[in-house]
Amino acid sequence: MVQSFYESVLEQIDATAERISLDPGIHKMLRQPERELTVSIPIEKDSGEIEVYTGYRVQHNSARGPCKGGIRYHPDTNLDEVRALATLMSLKCAVANVPYGGAKGGITCAPSKLSKKELQRLTKRYAAMILPIIGPRRDIPAPDVNTNAETMGWFMDAVSMEQGKTVLDIVTGKPLELGGSLGRREATGRGVMLTAIELLKKLKKDPKKTTVAVQGFGNVGSIGAELLVEQGCTINAISDVSGGLCNPDGLDIPDIIKHINSKPRAPLLKDYKRKKGDETIGNEELLELDVDVLVPAALENQIHSDNADNIKAGIIVEGANGPVTKKGDEILAERGTYVIPDILANSGGVVVSYFEWVQGIQSFFWGVNEVNENLKNIMLKGFDDVWNISKEKKVTLRDAAFILSIKKIAKAVELRGIFP
Ligand code: NAD
Predict the structure, then answer these.
(1) In a domain, 225, yes or no
(2) Does one domain contain both 122 and 209?
(3) Per the domain annotation, does 391 fall within a domain?
(4) What is the largest CA-CA distance in the chain?
(5) pLDDT tens-digit profile of 201-225?
């Protein structure tokens, strides 16, 4: 059986704690989120009926600063998943060295079955329900799977109406017209590209001779693919929830993105008018394709003990959170596969969210070049720190990222002292 996402994260924390002889008390703190809230969210459907959804907000650790993390809408979202994601956020913010702790939120729902008006009501009610524990200096949500800038605009409005004033810095990932930051929408995909290219450089591989497969063609996967093409890579396969496309000579990524952006609710890949040489491919098959780089950018637990041995890519760049289970990771490590871990590879989103928060507080907004340049500096510093620990201690990039982040959080806990 595939181990649960949260079990995988806890096992990795336990392994790191042992490796760095972490104080047993701090180890216990990291194994348990600081605060968890479950809310029931009644909304009036367009039919007039009332439906009740369940939502969550989990704050894992705030030793390094206010909590930060996205909000996910998905039928499989549950408290354990949100705990795992919140835990990874604490570690991710520490690797990037942005002054935040980790949080995550979610609503168990199938957004494709809700109208836009229903989604708006769901978001606003959820915002009001979790408001007692969030705030610009407490916990700042952002988009994640099936949520976007529009969702953040609705969220911000609900909090603003509740408080009787416009509160821009309650969420990041907002529309540009509502205090969003240039470069935020592209930030996670850009970070995926930057870390992938940096690893290729370290391994003395030419991006122009590099083939790539991308699982998940949403915000992270589509922008990551587009930016890797700009660097000269060939994207041989992509997929979304409806299935996949492949072409040994490379897919026309800009044209596929045009299709995805052609309607407000992203059309699916299965409806794309295929070009010469394009074939369909299943998701399992995509993961096992003979390419140089695999970018899982959909959901967790995609590579596990049952399929890790079949992965042919020598490099995996984790666009998604938790796409490889702990057991799957051990198999990949034995095979010598390089895995750029989620807490490094997809940290571009939280880094530019941090820039958005800073810009909002200052009411002074930066140009896109400034955003991208600062993002690049932070991503490459994080990459170098992780790379150097991995070389020095002869451990995988994931082990190195966990060592780096857990040491930083432990130091913050020690410096603050346990209250009271
Ligand atoms: P999204 O909703 O924009 O896109 C998700 C994509 O995955 C869609 O194309 C969907 O069709 C596809 N998908 C869903 N189930 C699939 C399956 N079983 N097989 C193949 N494809 C499938 O979400 P996103 O924001 O791109 O997030 C993707 C991942 O990246 C998540 O793990 C998320 O937590 C992580 N992440 C996102 C951000 C961000 O800024 N958006 C930041 C860090 C990490």
Answers:
(1) yes
(2) no
(3) no
(4) 67
(5) 999 999 999 999 999 999 999 999 9
